[in-house]
Design brief:
By secondary structure, the chain is an alpha/beta fold. It is built from 14 helices and nine strands. Helices cover about 55% and strands about 15% of the residues. α6 (about 100-110) links the parallel β5 (about 90-95) and β6 (about 115-120). Keywords: NAD, Oxidoreductase, Signal.
Length: about 290
Protein backbone atom coordinates (compact mmCIF):
# COMPACT_ATOMS: atom_id res chain seq x y z
CA UNK A 1 0.00 0.00 0.00
CA UNK A 2 1.21 3.49 -0.81
CA UNK A 3 1.09 7.01 0.62
CA UNK A 4 -1.05 8.91 -1.89
CA UNK A 5 -2.24 12.50 -2.25
CA UNK A 6 -5.28 13.33 -4.37
CA UNK A 7 -5.75 16.90 -5.57
CA UNK A 8 -9.16 17.96 -6.90
CA UNK A 9 -12.39 16.48 -5.57
CA UNK A 10 -14.98 17.17 -8.25
CA UNK A 11 -17.48 14.63 -9.55
CA UNK A 12 -14.57 12.50 -10.76
CA UNK A 13 -11.89 13.07 -8.14
CA UNK A 14 -14.08 12.57 -5.07
CA UNK A 15 -14.97 8.94 -5.86
CA UNK A 16 -11.55 8.17 -7.36
CA UNK A 17 -9.87 9.20 -4.10
CA UNK A 18 -12.45 7.10 -2.28
CA UNK A 19 -11.43 4.01 -4.24
CA UNK A 20 -7.80 4.59 -3.28
CA UNK A 21 -8.76 4.70 0.40
CA UNK A 22 -10.95 1.61 0.04
CA UNK A 23 -8.02 -0.25 -1.53
CA UNK A 24 -6.00 0.41 1.62
CA UNK A 25 -3.78 3.27 0.49
CA UNK A 26 -2.94 6.05 2.94
CA UNK A 27 -4.73 8.98 1.31
CA UNK A 28 -4.50 12.72 1.89
CA UNK A 29 -6.81 14.96 -0.14
CA UNK A 30 -6.87 18.62 -1.09
CA UNK A 31 -9.45 20.74 -2.87
CA UNK A 32 -9.63 24.46 -3.57
CA UNK A 33 -12.96 24.48 -1.73
CA UNK A 34 -11.81 23.16 1.62
CA UNK A 35 -15.30 22.02 2.60
CA UNK A 36 -15.17 19.32 -0.09
CA UNK A 37 -11.93 17.95 1.28
CA UNK A 38 -13.37 17.91 4.81
CA UNK A 39 -16.50 16.16 3.50
CA UNK A 40 -14.35 13.54 1.80
CA UNK A 41 -12.33 12.96 4.98
CA UNK A 42 -15.58 12.59 6.91
CA UNK A 43 -16.76 9.87 4.54
CA UNK A 44 -13.54 7.96 3.89
CA UNK A 45 -10.44 6.83 5.74
CA UNK A 46 -7.94 9.60 5.14
CA UNK A 47 -7.28 13.22 5.94
CA UNK A 48 -7.71 16.65 4.37
CA UNK A 49 -4.79 19.03 3.83
CA UNK A 50 -4.91 22.82 3.74
CA UNK A 51 -2.73 23.15 0.60
CA UNK A 52 -1.63 21.03 -2.32
CA UNK A 53 1.93 21.28 -1.01
CA UNK A 54 0.91 19.92 2.39
CA UNK A 55 -1.02 17.07 0.79
CA UNK A 56 1.98 16.12 -1.34
CA UNK A 57 4.52 16.09 1.49
CA UNK A 58 5.67 12.54 2.10
CA UNK A 59 3.46 11.10 -0.65
CA UNK A 60 4.86 8.48 -2.99
CA UNK A 61 2.19 9.31 -5.57
CA UNK A 62 0.31 12.56 -6.13
CA UNK A 63 -2.84 12.25 -8.23
CA UNK A 64 -4.60 15.30 -9.67
CA UNK A 65 -7.94 15.81 -11.38
CA UNK A 66 -8.57 19.51 -11.83
CA UNK A 67 -10.09 21.73 -14.53
CA UNK A 68 -7.77 22.87 -17.30
CA UNK A 69 -4.20 23.76 -18.27
CA UNK A 70 -4.01 26.82 -16.02
CA UNK A 71 -5.50 24.96 -13.04
CA UNK A 72 -3.01 22.13 -13.45
CA UNK A 73 -0.03 24.46 -13.83
CA UNK A 74 -1.08 26.31 -10.66
CA UNK A 75 -1.59 23.11 -8.67
CA UNK A 76 1.84 21.86 -9.70
CA UNK A 77 4.07 24.93 -9.64
CA UNK A 78 2.62 27.52 -7.24
CA UNK A 79 4.61 28.17 -4.04
CA UNK A 80 2.00 26.08 -2.19
CA UNK A 81 1.68 23.65 -5.09
CA UNK A 82 2.40 19.94 -5.22
CA UNK A 83 5.90 20.06 -6.70
CA UNK A 84 7.10 22.14 -3.73
CA UNK A 85 6.06 19.41 -1.33
CA UNK A 86 7.02 16.29 -3.26
CA UNK A 87 10.16 14.35 -2.42
CA UNK A 88 12.62 13.16 -5.07
CA UNK A 89 11.47 9.89 -6.57
CA UNK A 90 7.76 10.58 -6.04
CA UNK A 91 5.45 10.40 -9.06
CA UNK A 92 2.82 12.93 -10.13
CA UNK A 93 -0.12 11.32 -11.94
CA UNK A 94 -2.33 13.78 -13.82
CA UNK A 95 -5.88 12.63 -14.52
CA UNK A 96 -6.97 16.03 -15.86
CA UNK A 97 -7.77 16.37 -19.56
CA UNK A 98 -5.35 19.06 -20.70
CA UNK A 99 -3.16 19.87 -23.68
CA UNK A 100 -0.19 17.70 -24.54
CA UNK A 101 1.87 20.91 -24.48
CA UNK A 102 1.26 21.66 -20.79
CA UNK A 103 1.80 17.98 -20.01
CA UNK A 104 5.25 18.04 -21.60
CA UNK A 105 6.07 21.35 -19.90
CA UNK A 106 5.19 20.04 -16.44
CA UNK A 107 6.81 16.67 -17.08
CA UNK A 108 10.08 18.47 -17.88
CA UNK A 109 9.80 20.58 -14.71
CA UNK A 110 9.10 17.46 -12.67
CA UNK A 111 12.17 15.76 -14.14
CA UNK A 112 14.36 18.70 -13.13
CA UNK A 113 13.18 18.16 -9.55
CA UNK A 114 13.81 14.41 -9.62
CA UNK A 115 10.09 13.63 -9.83
CA UNK A 116 8.23 11.26 -12.14
CA UNK A 117 5.27 12.45 -14.18
CA UNK A 118 2.54 10.35 -15.81
CA UNK A 119 -0.24 11.96 -17.83
CA UNK A 120 -3.24 9.73 -17.28
CA UNK A 121 -6.53 11.22 -18.50
CA UNK A 122 -9.59 9.06 -17.99
CA UNK A 123 -12.77 8.12 -19.82
CA UNK A 124 -15.94 6.66 -18.36
CA UNK A 125 -17.58 9.70 -16.83
CA UNK A 126 -18.98 10.12 -13.35
CA UNK A 127 -20.48 6.64 -13.35
CA UNK A 128 -17.12 5.11 -14.27
CA UNK A 129 -15.41 7.03 -11.46
CA UNK A 130 -18.03 5.99 -8.92
CA UNK A 131 -17.91 2.35 -9.98
CA UNK A 132 -14.11 2.20 -10.28
CA UNK A 133 -14.41 1.33 -13.97
CA UNK A 134 -12.47 4.05 -15.76
CA UNK A 135 -10.41 3.70 -18.91
CA UNK A 136 -7.02 5.28 -18.21
CA UNK A 137 -4.69 6.24 -21.06
CA UNK A 138 -1.16 7.11 -19.99
CA UNK A 139 1.96 8.85 -21.22
CA UNK A 140 5.36 8.81 -19.58
CA UNK A 141 8.36 6.58 -19.02
CA UNK A 142 7.88 2.82 -18.73
CA UNK A 143 9.47 2.94 -15.28
CA UNK A 144 7.16 5.64 -13.98
CA UNK A 145 4.12 3.96 -15.44
CA UNK A 146 5.06 0.58 -13.97
CA UNK A 147 5.19 2.11 -10.50
CA UNK A 148 1.95 4.09 -10.87
CA UNK A 149 -0.22 1.45 -12.56
CA UNK A 150 -0.91 -0.66 -9.43
CA UNK A 151 -2.17 2.46 -7.65
CA UNK A 152 -4.28 3.63 -10.60
CA UNK A 153 -5.79 0.13 -10.67
CA UNK A 154 -7.99 1.10 -7.70
CA UNK A 155 -10.39 2.85 -10.11
CA UNK A 156 -9.43 1.50 -13.55
CA UNK A 157 -11.12 -1.03 -15.79
CA UNK A 158 -8.22 -0.74 -18.21
CA UNK A 159 -4.96 1.18 -17.88
CA UNK A 160 -2.37 1.32 -20.62
CA UNK A 161 0.86 3.16 -21.43
CA UNK A 162 0.36 4.74 -24.86
CA UNK A 163 3.80 6.26 -25.32
CA UNK A 164 6.05 9.05 -23.95
CA UNK A 165 4.89 12.17 -22.14
CA UNK A 166 1.77 13.60 -23.78
CA UNK A 167 0.67 10.33 -25.38
CA UNK A 168 -2.06 9.84 -22.80
CA UNK A 169 -3.51 13.26 -23.57
CA UNK A 170 -3.34 12.62 -27.32
CA UNK A 171 -5.23 9.35 -26.81
CA UNK A 172 -7.88 11.17 -24.77
CA UNK A 173 -8.28 13.55 -27.72
CA UNK A 174 -9.02 10.52 -29.92
CA UNK A 175 -11.66 9.53 -27.37
CA UNK A 176 -13.37 12.92 -27.40
CA UNK A 177 -13.26 13.17 -31.20
CA UNK A 178 -15.00 9.79 -31.46
CA UNK A 179 -17.65 10.69 -28.89
CA UNK A 180 -18.47 14.04 -30.51
CA UNK A 181 -19.41 12.56 -33.88
CA UNK A 182 -21.15 9.58 -32.32
CA UNK A 183 -23.44 11.64 -30.07
CA UNK A 184 -24.38 13.93 -32.95
CA UNK A 185 -25.25 10.91 -35.10
CA UNK A 186 -27.32 9.38 -32.29
CA UNK A 187 -29.11 12.68 -31.72
CA UNK A 188 -30.04 12.93 -35.39
CA UNK A 189 -31.20 9.30 -35.45
CA UNK A 190 -33.50 9.72 -32.45
CA UNK A 191 -34.76 13.07 -33.73
CA UNK A 192 -35.56 11.48 -37.09
CA UNK A 193 -37.43 8.65 -35.35
CA UNK A 194 -39.54 11.19 -33.47
CA UNK A 195 -40.39 13.12 -36.64
CA UNK A 196 -41.26 9.87 -38.43
CA UNK A 197 -43.72 8.91 -35.71
CA UNK A 198 -41.72 5.88 -34.57
CA UNK A 199 -41.23 4.64 -31.02
CA UNK A 200 -37.71 5.54 -29.95
CA UNK A 201 -37.51 2.61 -27.54
CA UNK A 202 -38.57 0.16 -30.25
CA UNK A 203 -36.19 1.67 -32.80
CA UNK A 204 -33.28 1.45 -30.37
CA UNK A 205 -34.18 -2.11 -29.37
CA UNK A 206 -33.81 -3.15 -32.99
CA UNK A 207 -30.91 -1.07 -34.29
CA UNK A 208 -28.79 -1.38 -31.14
CA UNK A 209 -28.40 -5.08 -31.90
CA UNK A 210 -26.68 -4.31 -35.19
CA UNK A 211 -23.84 -2.14 -36.44
CA UNK A 212 -25.42 1.07 -35.07
CA UNK A 213 -25.18 -0.07 -31.46
CA UNK A 214 -23.02 1.90 -28.99
CA UNK A 215 -22.61 2.63 -25.30
CA UNK A 216 -24.18 6.04 -25.85
CA UNK A 217 -27.22 4.51 -27.53
CA UNK A 218 -27.68 1.88 -24.84
CA UNK A 219 -27.21 4.23 -21.89
CA UNK A 220 -28.53 7.58 -23.09
CA UNK A 221 -31.38 7.00 -25.55
CA UNK A 222 -34.09 7.01 -22.88
CA UNK A 223 -32.87 10.12 -21.11
CA UNK A 224 -32.41 11.87 -24.45
CA UNK A 225 -36.00 11.00 -25.35
CA UNK A 226 -37.15 12.46 -22.03
CA UNK A 227 -35.04 15.63 -22.34
CA UNK A 228 -33.09 14.77 -19.19
CA UNK A 229 -29.48 15.85 -19.41
CA UNK A 230 -28.10 15.60 -15.88
CA UNK A 231 -25.88 12.59 -16.48
CA UNK A 232 -22.15 13.03 -16.40
CA UNK A 233 -19.78 15.10 -18.51
CA UNK A 234 -20.93 18.70 -19.04
CA UNK A 235 -21.09 20.56 -22.35
CA UNK A 236 -18.78 23.29 -20.99
CA UNK A 237 -16.08 20.70 -20.36
CA UNK A 238 -16.64 19.00 -23.70
CA UNK A 239 -16.10 22.28 -25.50
CA UNK A 240 -12.87 22.77 -23.55
CA UNK A 241 -11.73 19.31 -24.64
CA UNK A 242 -12.76 19.77 -28.27
CA UNK A 243 -10.85 23.06 -28.32
CA UNK A 244 -7.75 21.12 -27.25
CA UNK A 245 -8.38 18.56 -30.00
CA UNK A 246 -8.79 21.19 -32.70
CA UNK A 247 -5.65 23.06 -31.58
CA UNK A 248 -3.65 19.83 -31.66
CA UNK A 249 -5.01 19.05 -35.13
CA UNK A 250 -3.77 22.42 -36.34
CA UNK A 251 -0.32 21.40 -35.15
CA UNK A 252 -0.20 17.86 -36.53
CA UNK A 253 -2.16 18.43 -39.74
CA UNK A 254 -5.12 16.18 -38.92
CA UNK A 255 -8.43 17.05 -40.60
CA UNK A 256 -11.34 17.16 -38.13
CA UNK A 257 -14.32 18.64 -40.02
CA UNK A 258 -17.01 16.78 -38.04
CA UNK A 259 -15.37 17.60 -34.72
CA UNK A 260 -15.23 21.30 -35.64
CA UNK A 261 -18.90 21.24 -36.64
CA UNK A 262 -20.04 19.44 -33.48
CA UNK A 263 -18.04 21.88 -31.38
CA UNK A 264 -20.19 24.65 -32.83
CA UNK A 265 -23.33 22.61 -32.14
CA UNK A 266 -22.26 22.42 -28.50
CA UNK A 267 -21.84 26.20 -28.60
CA UNK A 268 -25.50 26.37 -29.64
CA UNK A 269 -26.39 24.25 -26.60
CA UNK A 270 -24.44 26.64 -24.37
CA UNK A 271 -26.39 29.54 -25.86
CA UNK A 272 -29.59 27.69 -24.96
CA UNK A 273 -28.45 27.72 -21.32
CA UNK A 274 -27.20 24.13 -21.43
CA UNK A 275 -23.56 24.58 -20.49
CA UNK A 276 -23.95 22.26 -17.52
CA UNK A 277 -26.11 19.72 -19.36
CA UNK A 278 -24.38 16.48 -20.26
CA UNK A 279 -23.06 15.85 -23.76
CA UNK A 280 -26.16 13.93 -24.91
CA UNK A 281 -27.97 17.29 -24.94
CA UNK A 282 -27.03 17.77 -28.60
CA UNK A 283 -30.50 16.48 -29.37
CA UNK A 284 -32.01 19.53 -27.64
CA UNK A 285 -30.81 21.90 -30.38
CA UNK A 286 -32.55 19.74 -33.01
CA UNK A 287 -35.85 20.10 -31.15
CA UNK A 288 -35.80 23.91 -31.04
Amino acid sequence: MARVAFLGLGVMGFPMAGHLAAAGHQVTVWNRTAAKAEAWAGKHTGRAAATAREAAEGAEFVMACVGNDDDLRQVCTAPEGAFAGMQAGAIFVDHTTVSAAVTRELSALAGERGLGFVDAPVSGGQAGAENGQLSVMCGGTPEGYARAEPVIAAYARICRLMGPSGAGQLTKMCNQIAIAGLVQGLSESLHFAEKAGLSISEVVEVISQGAAGSWQMQNRHKTMEENRFDFGFAVDWMRKDLGICLAAADENGASLPVTALVDQFYKDVQNMGGGRWDTSSLIARLRK
